[in-house]
Specification:
The protein is mainly β. It has one domain (7-182): Autotransporter beta-domain (Lipocalin, Beta Barrel). Helices cover 0% and strands 78% of the residues.
């Protein structure tokens, strides 16, 4: 929801299934063998956010916002020269960021954003043939950035957003996206 004062709130829930297939993903020096990985698991998550858009010119604005993000990915297992069991992962993140928006006219917008994100948890635990492997931990701070273009036809509630987003720090990522959204 957005108000004329510039304040906005958002909330969403998401659920789905993530599947991973990797050729030659694991190598065993003992047997000189290469193994493929084929695994998948369900995920559920949600997000709560609050922000304020401040106009700094006729075509320029800055959106300051904060989000709390939760994600749970279920456990799965796969065979790659031995039985691997990946336990479910919970992620709890707080994101504080700002986005510069430039209005190109006719409801086209360019934007660029920078911020920070803190992961409170995010430990991944794996067992290989019954023995626990050292867990991976994504806990900590990372920088985030985004660059994109958005088309939002006037009074339709519909928008198309093409973007590239990334993070640096202990956990690095790059995401190229196309989002179609209807807001009411």
């Amino acid at each position: 929801m957005k108000w004329k004062s510039g304040w906005h709130v958002n909330a969403n829930l998401r659920a789905g299934y993530a599947k991973t297939e990797q050729s030659a993903a694991l190598y065993s020096a003992g047997t000189n063998s290469v193994y493929d990985i084929d695994s998948g698991s369900y995920y559920i998550g949600g997000e709560l956010g609050l922000g304020k858009i401040i106009d700094v010119g006729v075509r320029h604005s800055i959106d300051w916002y904060g989000k709390y993000i939760y994600l749970h990915q279920g456990s799965n297992s796969f065979y790659a020269g031995g039985e691997y069991d990946v336990k479910g992962i919970n992620s709890y993140r707080l994101q504080l960021a700002g986005r510069y928006n430039y209005d190109l006219g006719k409801r086209w917008f360019l934007y660029a954003g920078l911020g920070g994100e803190y992961e409170f948890d995010g430990e991944g635990r794996v067992w290989a043939d019954g023995l626990e492997v050292e867990p991976t931990k994504n806990k900590g701070m990372r920088g985030i950035g985004e660059l994109g273009v958005k088309l939002s036809p006037e009074d339709s509630g519909f928008s198309i957003d093409v973007s590239v987003k990334g993070s640096i720090g202990k956990f690095r990522s790059a995401l190229f996206g196309l989002e179609m959204k209807y807001e009411f």
